[in-house]
Specification:
The chain is 32% helix and 26% strand. The protein is an alpha/beta fold. The chain folds into 2 domains: 155 residues, HAD superfamily/HAD-like (Rossmann fold, 3-Layer(aba) Sandwich); 112 residues, Hypothetical Protein, Haloacid Dehalogenase-like Hydrolase, Chain: A, domain 2 (2-Layer Sandwich). The strands form 3 sheets. It has a 6-stranded mixed sheet with strand order 8-7-6-9-11-10, sandwiched between helices. Strands 2-1-12-13-14 form a 5-stranded parallel sheet. It has a 3-stranded antiparallel sheet with strand order 3-4-5, covered by helices on one side. Strand 7, helix 5 and strand 8 form a beta-alpha-beta unit. It starts with a strand and ends in a 6-residue tail after the last helix.
């Protein structure tokens, strides 16, 4: 039995950060045909689930690039690769000289988010702070240096040069993994996400494949945080808007995410319109 895995931003989501009506209908047809599917995203559970309204996702879902696996049946996280206090402090030291504002993301066993932020230096940080404060089921606090539990990742949004400077310095930290790239929703903004090296989309999907006895994995993704998933999949597909490196790894390049490229491919690949 195949397991189909979707990245969200730049892949299943369009540029408005939504699932189109056509894509929602396609996922419903996929479920009707009893084809197993799930998501593997850099988003948090809280930032992804509202987009799934009206859809049935019974299988565990991979969040924060493999840091967490969420089981919707038990409503609990079944896996976690958290950052230690020492690792968090080391990353914050790197941020001190860049002018970027770090946000330390945590999750409790009860699925509440506590978000801690460093000094807010610029408009990028102010916008991100406001966005964090508007999240449901989340509380936002200034970082005091006290140890906290369940640190999933450290994230920020800023200009390109300081972001790349942090990425370059973090390459020396073998226990950390950092992704970054232009924000597809905001011009001249670059996002960055830092988490433990043991966390990856590919590793999390391997666990699900083994646990549920899937024979093959078919995945869809567009960015460098999808590389580990592409490497372990039997088939991997990149939308037209994907990064060049991902396109080069793909079994095939398919339609653009703003043109329901994934949905059109699924309908043809699994003959969904014949139901």
């Amino acid at each position: 039995m195949d397991l189909v895995v979707f990245d969200l931003d730049g892949t299943l989501f369009n540029s408005e950060q939504k699932l189109s009506a056509y894509t929602k209908e396609t996922l419903a047809l996929l479920a009707k045909k009893k084809i197993a599917f799930t998501v593997a995203t850099g988003r948090t559970l809280h930032a992804a689930v509202p987009s799934f309204e009206g859809l049935h996702f019974p299988l565990p879902q991979v969040y924060k690039n493999g840091v967490l696996i969420w089981d919707p049946v038990s409503a609990k996280y079944s896996h976690g690769n958290f950052l230690t206090h020492q690792e968090v402090e080391g990353v914050l030291e790197v941020f001190d000289t860049t002018g970027l504002s770090p946000f330390i993301m945590t999750v409790t066993p009860e699925n509440h988010q506590h978000i801690y932020h460093g000094p807010i230096h610029n408009a990028h940080g102010e916008k991100l702070l406001k966005k964090m404060q508007e999240r449901p089921n989340a509380s936002v606090h200034a970082w005091t240096g006290e140890p906290v539990e369940g640190v999933t990742n450290i994230t920020t949004i800023g200009a390109k040069e300081p972001t790349e400077a942090i990425i370059e310095r973090l390459r020396r930290e073998k226990q950390l993994c950092a992704f970054y790239g232009p924000d597809m929703y905001k011009a001249d903004h670059y996002w960055m996400d830092i988490h433990h090296i043991d966390a990856s989309k590919g590793g999390a999907i391997e666990m699900l494949k083994s646990e549920y006895g899937f024979k093959r994995v078919i995945c869809f993704g567009d960015g460098d945080n999808d590389i580990s998933m592409f490497q372990m999949s039997d088939e991997c597909y990149a939308p037209e808007n994907a990064d060049p490196e991902i396109k080069a790894m793909a079994t095939a390049v398919i339609g653009h995410h703003d043109q329901d490229g994934i949905a059109h491919f699924l309908r043809e690949r699994f003959q969904l319109d014949d139901q």
